Amino acid sequence: MQIIQRSSSAGISKDSSASATGLDQAGLAGAAQGSTSANGPAPGASAAPPAGAAPLRRGLSNWDQPLQNDISSAQQAVDFLEQSAAQLRTLKTDLATKLAARQLRDGQLEQQVRQFSDTWRTRREASGGSLDARLNFSGGEPSSQRFTVRGMSLANLRSGARETLAISVGGGVQGLRSVHLSPGLSDGEIVARFDGALAPAGVRVSSNDDGELVFSTGESDWPAVRDSIAVQGSGVRFPTGQLNRLRAEPEQPAVMPENWGVEDIESMRDTLQQVMGALSHVEAALSKVRQELNVATQRAQSAMPQLETAGVEDLATRFAKIAGEPGYQSLMALTSALVGINRDRVVSLLSLR
């Protein structure tokens, strides 16, 4: 399973932060710079931070966005896989129990099969698009659908004279791509030519052990690609004339609950074997995604911004000065600066000293 590696401020509203010029803009900017004197300009005198001041860094906004996407996608995938594994374990146990007792259908097994089928149909949405039908985890990237096309084998493409193929994916003129084939091309060169031609249309190309070209596209784009892929040749490998529709065969999913049946003893035995295989796939995927989640979490922890300690005394002085001033503006500055600050945050900050 391939893993592909991939800010938000909270607590201060846009309006309230705009009104807190004395503390939020002047005081905090001076604290971030770490070099402003306690006797600096009066609160509210200037909204612009001193020259060379470091930008104010606020918590999660300092994480790079791809890292946040990795963590979010991995957590969604873990949740989906854990739910699926729990349902499969229950179904496996009940199937084995009823088979041992030679107890035929009573409605419970049918309900459990339907429940898992419903869960499996939500795979893409529930995992945030990070798990494909083979349970490969794609991180912050959308999941893909792999497929083969009848006639697109390396043996067929190697043979014959020079030919230019016009391939349509997605329909329309923009989806029409050209691939030039000639005698003597290696398998790698053929794959590279198809991949280079189709990549702008959102389709990537590789090959499998059976010598077939393997195409992949975004899972959300798969229906459009499946229903529109066509080719036109010059009569060497593919017919000339109009574009000829090709049959795209999707890669078999890791789990196919639509094939499960519990009508009789034989179908229950067959379903039990398939459930055990599905559970094995799900648990293997869950283990790998958990590892990726741990790695991403460790990266996030190491990337957490270090609190600026320089200028803290200056900030405290400014805060005390504003607190001692009467008037509505000073009250607004203090209340907006304190929004979202609670005891737990204060204790956490003090523990870093």
Automatic annotation (TrEMBL):
Residues 1-66 are annotated as: Disordered. Residues 7-55 have a biased composition (Low complexity). This is Flagellin.
